[in-house]
Amino acid sequence: LIRERYPNRQIKVERQVIQDAHDNFVNHGKWKMWDPNGNIMADGQYLDGARQGTWVRWLAAGECKLLTTVPYRLFQGPFVSQATFENGDLEGQWTIYDAKQRKISQWSFVDGQRDGCWTWWYPNARKMREIQYCDGDINGTYREWKPDGTLVIDDTYEAGRKLAQKVTHQQGSTAQKQTEGMYLHARITPQSADDWWNCELAKLVTQGKDEKHGLWTSWYATGQKKLQGEYRHDLQVSTFTWWHPNGQIAAEGTYDEGRQVGKWTWWHPNGQKSIQGEFASGGPSGRWTWWKEDGKVAQRADFSLSKGQIVEVPVLEDTPMVRRPESATMEHPARE
To answer: How many domains does the chain have?
Structure first.
């Protein structure tokens, strides 16, 4: 048993130790700490030099920055910070109470990482904030409430990335939409470990970039729908559809992880089919046909065995050029 003392001879730390295989003394067993006036400040146990089991620390109202923030500054100090450890890592619950034993916050950990439900409360016992974590990242719901119980934030996260709708408006308008779609925002992740002893939460940093992730729609200034399709991590997936300003369908086809696949079709503004062909392995494949606005065939091409050359097709948002074989000699359809 080792006792450390203040200059006034009051015991500061009382700890049990053992010697390891190299004869070093390491903390092992009960560990307690008092302030110079003899008031208990911390109580816990060590196992072979690492915190183990339940630890409790008593903190004054202004002893750490966290306790000066909401909701803690709405409660009465001193505060009690209690957590469980496994081999030196936070494991289970870290809970903070006020002087009246009212629960202010409770956070879950697995192997030292944020994992499970994190909750904060107001003095009236209503929830202030609730966040779901998995393997250190926000994963699931992030909610915040006002003291009267009114929900003010209700977000969804995937592996630390907020999934949220983004809307842009036509120039000079606050009502007419130009685009609307779901974004998977850049990842928010802890830069360091949460520090129970100093009552400090990890600093959060943003990594990566925002990505289109979900259904996207765009409109012309007239309000007519222009494009609709779905994205996954900035790549087009599933069926995409385009419309002409007059409301006639302009093109339709399917994407697989950003690559055009299967049958694709374009139409003239008068509703007459303009181009039809198939994509395979990232490029045009098989027989393609072009039609004039009056429905007459303008040209045909076979992409089965040719490297191809550029063929101009109606240029639409997020669609690439199409190639045709060098043997094709007919005039190219005009680009729209």
So the answer is: 1
Structural domain that includes position 262: 248-336
Residue 266 in any domain: the answer is yes
pLDDT band at 240 (very low <50, low <70, confident <90, very high): very high
Q: How confident is the model at residue 62 (pLDDT cuts 50, 70, 90)?
A: confident
> pLDDT per residue over 211-232, tens digit each?
999 999 999 999 999 999 999 9
**Does residue 322 lie in a domain region?**
yes
Residue 335 lies in a domain: yes
Three-class HEC string of the chain: CEEEECCCCCEEEEEEEEECCCCCEEEEEEEEEECCCCCEEEEEEEECCEEEEEEEEEECCCCCHHHHCCCHHHCCCCEEEEEEEECCEEEEEEEEECCCCCEEEEEEEECCEECEEEEEECCCCCEEEEEEEECCEEEEEEEEECCCCCEEEEEEEECCEEEEEEEEECCCCCCCEEEEEEEECCEEEECCCCECCCCECCCEEEECCCEEEEEEEEECCCCCEEEEEEEECCEEEEEEEEECCCCCEEEEEEEECCEEEEEEEEECCCCCEEEEEEEECCEEEEEEEEECCCCCEEEEEECCCCCCEEECCCCCCCCCCEEECCCCCCCCCCCC
Residue 180 in domain: no
Read off the pLDDT of residues 125-182 as tens digits, 9 standing for 90 and up: 999 999 999 999 999 999 999 999 999 999 999 999 999 999 999 998 888 999 999 9
CATH code, 252: 2.20.110
